[in-house]
Structure formats: C-alpha cells, structure tokens
Amino acid sequence: MNQEKFNQAVEDMKKYVGVLEVFLLNSEGKVVYKYGDVDFTDQEGIKLLKAWKEKEPSLKYQNVRYAVLKNDDIQLAAKNVAGGKGNIAGSISKEGDYLFAHIAEETDLILLEWSILINKIAWS
Question: What is the total count of domains within the chain?
C-alpha cells in the first residue's frame, strides 16, 4: 500500500467516531506508515504481527493486553477487556501489508464492524 492509499484509508476511517491511531506494517511487521499520536516501533509491529500469524489468544499494543476475539488469515479483532483501552482491528491488504487501527472504547461501530470496515478499505 502506498502513502496516498494509506492516507485515503485513514480519511475513510475518520468518517466514524473513535479512530485513535492507524498504522501499516509490511509482511515482516515493520512500520511503513502511521497516523495519530503513537510511538509505535518496528519491534512492537513485529510482535503484533507474530501474535496475529501464530493465532495467539492475546496481543500487546503499547504494553496493554488485548484479548483476540477474531483471528483469521485476513482479519483481526482484539479488545482490551480489563482497562477500557479500546480495541485493535486489522486486515491484510491486497498488496500483502497489514493495516491496523487502534479504536476508542466508545465508537460509532462495534469491534467486528470495524474489522469488516478495515478489511473493505484495505482491499479497495
């Protein structure tokens, strides 16, 4: 996914309340682009992608644990159930990158709707 498509993806997600950060990882987990006030490193991206690919029951984002609710080859949905730190939703793109969004607890959409929306955006 190029910078222009990433920027459009961010704009498409911002049409809904709740988007905190958006980031794109390559197939190795390294950060390609990011949006929002987040200090997200390649090391964190590698761990996040590993949790997805190995179908782990939880993942960590910014040192906060998120329980994985949906995990398949093209989509991911995870929720922070303990501390109200929101949700993580992601999708692989048609280019083979991984598009993720950190979403607030209170939003226009439920988590699985976010997962579907991000998948739609990633494949457009």
Answer: 1
Find out whether 94 and 9 touch, Cβ atoms under 8 Å. no
CATH number at residue 39: 3.30.450.30
Residue 4 CB coordination number (10 Å): 8
What is the pTM for the complete model shown? 0.92
Alpha-carbon torsion (86, 88, 89, 93), positive or negative: positive
CB 68 within 8 A of CB 60: no
Q: Which of 119, 87, 105, 102 is nearest to 9 (CA)?
A: 119
In order of 1, 92, 113, 123, the CA distances from 116 in angstroms are: 18, 11, 5, 11
Does 106 score more than 90 pLDDT? Answer: no
DSSP state at residue 36: S
